[in-house]
Write a structure and sequence with these properties.
Elements lengths: L1 H18 L3 H7 L10 H7 L6 H8 L4 E4 L5 E17 L3 E2 L2 E2 L2 E17 L5 E10 L1
Antiparallel strand pairs: 1-2, 2-5, 3-4, 5-6
Length: about 130
Amino acid sequence: MNKNYLLAAVLISITLSGCAQKASWHANEVAETEKQTFSVGEVQRNIRTGMSSAEVIETLGSPNIVSTDEKGREVWVYDKFSTEQVVSASNGLTFSLSNVGGGAARTSQSTTTVIIKFDNNNKVRDTAYHASRF
């Protein structure tokens, strides 16, 4: 009879240790990924004073807002807001009211605003940008 208890204890231990995941494993599963369509770095690297509006569209795509300043010159605004939620979980075993398992989650939001001002010849005269992550 002791053999049966010992065998049952060993099997339960193996089963429980195989189902439980460490929190660090889940943290790695929800590691941050970069997938912005445009970034402040891209604007700094690729948008230059004197570029044509067509070149700006090739680089960043169409702007969200097009307006004019007090002198009738075009001002383009690229505004991006994103929310990312990543969840990693393992269910493990369920015994009556207790659940053996673990998980991790991460939610982040970011905003990126780029303002491009053009001169009378539709060439870039100034850029401004702001990015935040929370």
